[in-house]
Amino acid sequence: MAFGARSGSLSGLWLGGRGATFPRAMRCSARARDVAGAQTSVMRASRGVAGRARGWHAVPSFAAKYPRVAAAVGGGDGQGVQGGSNSSSSKNSNGKQQTPKKQRKKEDENPYSKTVNLPVTSFDMRANSVVKEPQIQEFWAKNGIYEHLAVERDGEAYVLHDGPPYANGDLHIGHALNKILKDFINRYQLLQGKKARFVPGWDTHGLPIELKVLQSMKSKERQGLTPVTLREKAKAFALETVDAQREQFKRYGIWADWDAPYVTLQPEYEAAQLRVFGKMVTNGHVYRGRKPVYWSPSSRTALAEAELEYPDGHVSKSIYVGLPVETVGANVSAQVGEHLAGAAVAVWTTTPWTIPSNLAVGVNEALVYAVVQTEEGKLVVAEELISVLEEKLGTKMSVLCTFKGSEIEGTTYRHPLFDRVSPVVIGGDYITTDAGTGLVHTAPGHGQDDYIVGQKYGLELLSPVDDAGRFTDEAGKFAGLQVQTEGTDAVIEALREQGALLCEEDYEHRYPYDWRTKKPTITRATDQWFASVDGFRTTALDAIKKVNWIPESGENRITSMTEGRNDWCISRQRTWGVPIPVFYHIETGEPLMNEDTINHIVAIVEQEGTDAWYVREVVDLLPDTYKDQAPSLRKGTDTMDVWFDSGSSWSGVLGQREGLNHPADLYLEGSDQHRGWFQSSLLTSVASEGIAPYKNVLTHGFVLDEKGMKMSKSVGNVVDPRKIIVGGNNQKTDPAFGADVLRLWVASVDYTSDVLIGDRIISQVADVYRKIRFTLRYILGNLSDFDPAKDAIPFESLAATDKYILSRFSSLLEECTAAYDNYQFCRVYQALQRFVVLDLSNFYLDVVKDRLYVSEPTSKDRRACQTVLNHLLTGILPVIAPITPHMAEDAWQNLPYDAPTISVFMNGWRSAEAASSSPNEWLLNKETDKVWKSILAIRDEVNQLLEKARVEKSLGSSLESKIYVHVEDPVLQSALESLQATDNGQDQLRYILISSSVELVHDPATATDAAYSSARDGFTVGVDRAAGVKCSRCWNYSERVGEDADHKELCERCAPVISRSGFRVPSPTVVA
After folding, report:
1. Does the structure show a pLDDT above 50 at 775?
2. How confident is the model at residue 721, as a pLDDT?
3. 1013 bridge partner residues
4. Given its phi and psi angles, is residue 476 left (phi above 0), alpha (psi -120 to 50 degrees) or beta?
5. Are strands 368-373 and 1012-1016 parallel, antiparallel or unpaired?
6. What is the rounded CA–CA span in Å between residue 669 and residue 203?
7. N or C, which terminus of the chain has less Cβ within 10 Å?
C-alpha cells in the first residue's frame, strides 16, 4: 500500500475530495453502532503518489460499443447516457488541456507518479440526476427494455395489481412511497426472470371530481348544466389529471404500461364492473331497501364506511333526558310497578337532534336496573351507574328497588315533545354501563343497532331529515332547521321547557366525517341499493384465511372488519359515476333489473361507455323482450359507490389483460385499505366468483414529517417529492437529489409502520447514495484495462484476502435475496450499507490499493484483484438495481468491456452460485472465517495504536511503521505464518495492516517493548518506526531502496516493474 492512510477508506481523491461524512444509521438500521463507528476511518482521505495525480482520465464510452443505445438518448457526441467524463483538468484560452499548477509541480518533483496504475472511468462522480435520469429513462423507453422483460420474453407471470390512486390533484409523498415500493418488487421479479407486467390504474369517478368541475363553473353555467354536460367536463378533468400524475410517476423511475393504463372511466372497464354487479344480482346479493346509512349533508349523498374519517377533537352536545313512564309491562312485579309509577326512564344521547325520532328505549336484559329517588323525582337507571350519575346530575340518589332489564320489557313511556307512547325494548350487547345511564334512546331511522331492534319489534322507520340535513315537516315545529346546529339547539331548549332535560354537557368522542368535504355526517334512513354481506360473509372469511397477509396483523384487522360490517350501501346520489342499471315503474316505483336487462346494458356500455345511460332513451336501453314496457318505465339516477368501481378492478384488469393472472400475486397499499380497497375487492370477488382476488396482501404505513407529525399545508411541513427530485427555486437551500435518492429513502425506512421524511433525513440518505456511487466509480476505474473473458483468474488461484471478501459478498447476496423475497427492503439497504462501508471501504478496497496501483498492469496479482472487483461490481449492480435503477444502469453503461446485455436489467439477478463455478464455492468454512475475524480484530487494534502515534506526531503515514504481532492461539499463529509466506502481493500482513513491515513474534515482550503497544485477549501488538528509506513510487520504507542503479529512489518491488516497463526518468530541465 503506497498512499499513506493507515486504514479505512478509499482515497479522498477517488471518492470526491473530502468525501461525505457517513450519516447516522436511520431508524431501520440494525447495526447502527458498527457503521457509525466506522465513519471517521471510512471517509478519511489517503495520501500518496496516486493522491498527487489529480483527476480522472476518460475512456471511450459505452456508446461506442452500442451506437443504438447512444442514438436512443441523443448520444451523438459518443457520451451515451453518462454525459461525459469528470476531470479536474481545465482548458486554456486556446482550448488546449491544461494541468493545474499544483499538480504540475508535484509531477515535476516525482516523475514516478506517471507509472502508477490510476483508475480510469467515464462514470461520473456526480450523478447529475436532473439531466441524466431522464436520459436513462429515455434509453429504457426507446430500447423497449421493460416491454421485452415484462411482455415479450418467455417466463412465469408475476402480477402486482395496482390500487388506483384518485385522479384529483398532484401526487404527494404517500403516492411516491406506494409506487416506488411496487417498483422495487416488480424490478426484482424481472431480474429473477419473471414477466412482471405492471398495469397502473386511476380511480376517476365520484364526488371530488364532480365538485371540482362545479366549482370551476360560474353560477349561470351551473344552472344550465345537464347530466351529460357535467359528465363530459368531469371526464375531461379526470383525464387531464391522469396525464399529469402519469408524468410524475414516470419521473420516479417507475416501470409500467404507461401507454395502456386502466382508468375506471374506460368503457371496457365500466362494462367489466357492470358484469360483476350483474353476477352479484344474479347470485341474490343485491337488494333495494330503506335503511339507515351514513349520509353527508355537505355532499348530499350516502357514504360507505370506507368513505368516513374520524378526526381528533370532535365535540358533541350530549344530553340526559327523562322520559315519563306511562304504563308498566306485564313482567314487572307489583312492588317494582309501584315504584315505576310516576318515574321517568333516563336516557343519554350525543345526537340530541334524533330525539324527535325516538320510538323506543332499549335495555340490556342481563343488567340490573334501579328506580332511584332524587330531589326532582324518580328515575330509572342502571344500578352500576348510580354513583357516576349522582355526580353528573348533581343530585343524591336513593335506591327504591332493583330489577333485571328483562323485567321492564313492555313498559311504556310518553314522548316529552310529541303525542305518542313508546315501549321499553330489549336491545343487544351494545347496551353497556361504559357511559350514559344504561338505557339507550332508540331511533330506528338513525342508527344500525336501533334499526335492527326496530325490525324485531315492528317499529316505524321514522327519519324526518332531508338530503340537506334539515328537519322535514314530520319533525313538527323543528321543520327546516339544520339538524346538527340550530336544530340541535332547538330540541335541547324544547326538552328544557318540558322539564325533561336532566343535564347538558359537551362530550369529546370519535365521530364520522365525510372524507371529502371534511364535514360531519349523520345517519339517516333512505332508499338505497345494498350488497347483502350476510349472503357471502362466511365465504369471505374463509377466503381471508387462504391469503398471506403481511404483516400478519392484517388478517386480524380485515377479519374483524368483515365479521362486523353491515350490508354495503353501494348506491350514491351523484351524476359522475357508473349508473346502477335499474329501471323503475313510473306508477309503482317497483324496480326492473335482472340478468337480461343488465347483460344488454353491458353490451351497450362496452361500446359507448356509461354516457349511453344518460344519452339514450329508455326504449334503447332495454332488450327486445322488454321494449314494450318502455313507456311505463324510467331510468334510475343513482350511481355506484366508487369503492365498487375500484373494487372491481380485478375483473376490469386481471380478467381482461393478457398475461395477468387472477387472483393476483400481490396487492400492496396503505394500511387504511383494509377497510377500503382490500375489502371492496374481496367482497366483489367473493360475491361474484367465490374467491379472493389476491394471494398476498402487503401494507405500508403513512408518511409523517421529521418530528412524527401529520403533514399539513397549513402547518407548512408538506414534503413534495418533485422538490426532492429536481430541487426548489433556490438550489442552494433546496438542492436536486434525483429520483434515486427518493427511492433510496423508501428503501431505508421500515414501511410496515408510519415513516418519517424531511430535509435532514433526505440529506443523510443522499450521503449513503454518494458513498455507494463513489464505490462503484472506484471499482469501475480500476477495471479500465480488464476484460473478464481473457483476464479473469480462477477462484482457486486467488489470494486468501480475495477469497475472504468473496465469502462476505456471497453472504451479502444471500441476505439481500432473502430480503427481497420477503419485501424487506430496509434489510437490503442495511446490508448493502454495511458491506460498502465496513467490508469494502474500511477493509478490502483499502488493502488492495497497493496491488492495483503499484503492480505491473498485467500481473497475475493485479488481475486477480480485478477479477474480484468485477465479481463485486456485476453482483452489486443487480442488488441496487431495483432500488436505484438509474445509478445501476449508469454504471452498467460505463463497463469498460463489452457488456453481455444492453441493460443491467436484461442481465438478470446474479447469485454467488451463478458467479462461481460451484454452489457455495465462495463461502469460507467456520475455521477460516474465525481466523479472519481475528485478523480484523488485530487490524483494528493496530489502527488505534497508529492513530495514537499520529496524534503524538511520532508517525505520519502508517507506512512509516513496523508492526509486531504476537498471538496465543496456535491455529491462528499457523494461519498468520501461512499468509506471511505467500508471495501474491496481498496476503502478507504488511499489506493487510498497511505497514512497511510486519513481524510475527513468539514472545509478547517483543511487541510490548515497541514504542506503542497493546495487549488484548489472545494477542499483543506493537508499533515502531520502520527501518530503511522511503520508496518514491510506493512510499513503503525499505532497506533495499537504491539497489537498482537506474532507479535509486525505488524499492526492490518497484524497480523491476519500472525496468520492465521501459520507463526512463526524464532528464532534469536546464534553466538558462
Report:
1. yes
2. 96
3. 1022
4. left
5. unpaired
6. 14
7. C
Residue 1070 has pLDDT above 70, yes or no: no
Name which of 310, 203, 306 is nearest 570 in CA terms: 306
Biggest distance spanned by C-alpha atoms of the chain: 135
pLDDT value at 599 more than 90: yes
What are the backbone dihedrals phi and psi of residue 668, each rounded to the nearest 5 degrees, phi first? Answer: -135, 115
Residues 6+ apart with CB under 8 A from 1068: none
Sequence letter at residue 692: A
Tell me the C-alpha distance between 377 and 345, whole Å.
11
Cis? peptide before 663, omega within 30° of 0:
yes
- The residue written with cell numbers 415500493 in the block is 181
Cα pseudo-dihedral 118, 121, 123, 126, rounded to 10: 40
- Distance of alpha carbon 575 from alpha carbon 800, whole angstroms: 74
The stretch 618-626 carries a mean pLDDT of 96
| DSSP per residue, 880-927 | HTTTSHHHHHHHHHT-SS--SSSSHHHH----HHHHSSSTTTTPPPHH
Confidence of residue 581 (pLDDT cuts 50, 70, 90): very high
> What's the grid cell of residue 276?
360483476
Q: What is the mean pLDDT of residues 739-765?
A: 96
CB 205 within 8 A of CB 265: yes
Sign of CA dihedral 251, 748, 123, 876: negative
Backbone angles phi, psi at 292, to 5 degrees: -70, 130
Q: What is the pLDDT of residues 396-453, one digit of tens each?
A: 999 999 998 888 888 999 999 999 999 999 887 788 888 889 999 999 999 888 888 8
The dihedrals phi and psi of 382, each to the nearest 5 degrees, come to -70, 135
Nearest CA among 1060, 800, 1033, 905 for reference residue 52: 1033
| Lowest-confidence region among 21-35, 157-171, 678-692, 809-823 | 21-35
**How many Å apart are CA 623 and CA 445, to the nearest integer?**
38
The pLDDT, as a whole number, for residue 915 is 60
- What whole-number distance in Å separates Cα of residue 253 and Cα of residue 885? 8
Report whether 521 contacts 562 (CB < 8 A).
Answer: no
One-letter amino acid for residue 311 of the chain: P
**Residue environment code for 1026-1049, b if the CB has 16+ CB neighbours within 10 A, otherwise e:** bebbbbbbbbbbbeebbebeebeb
Of the candidates 267, 262, 957, 360, which has an alpha carbon nearest to the alpha carbon of residue 650? 262
In our burial notation (b when 16+ CB lie closer than 10 A, e otherwise), range 954-976 reads bbebbbbbbbbbbbeeeebbebb
Q: Which of 325, 348, 504 shows the shortest CA–CA distance to 416?
A: 325
Residue 287 φ/ψ, nearest 5 degrees: -145, 165
**Does a cis peptide bond (omega within 30 degrees of 0) precede residue 311?**
no
Nearest Cα residue to 631 out of 618, 643, 613: 618
Q: What SS3 state is found at 64?
A: helix
Task: Specify the higher pLDDT residue, 393 or 605.
Answer: 605
pLDDT tens digits, residue range 895-950? 999 999 999 999 999 765 566 655 578 889 999 999 999 999 999 999 999 999 99
Please name the residues in contact with 28: beta carbons below 8 A apart, sequence gap of 6 or more. Answer: 748, 749, 750, 826, 829, 830
Cell of residue 383, nine digits: 344500578
Residue with cell 377533537: 313
Average pLDDT, the chain: 87
β-pairing verdict for 344-349 and 368-373: unpaired
Cell numbers 438542492 correspond to what residue? 735
pLDDT tens track for 272-283: 999 999 999 999
Determine the angle formed by the axes of helices 677-689 and 267-282, rounding to 10 degrees: 60
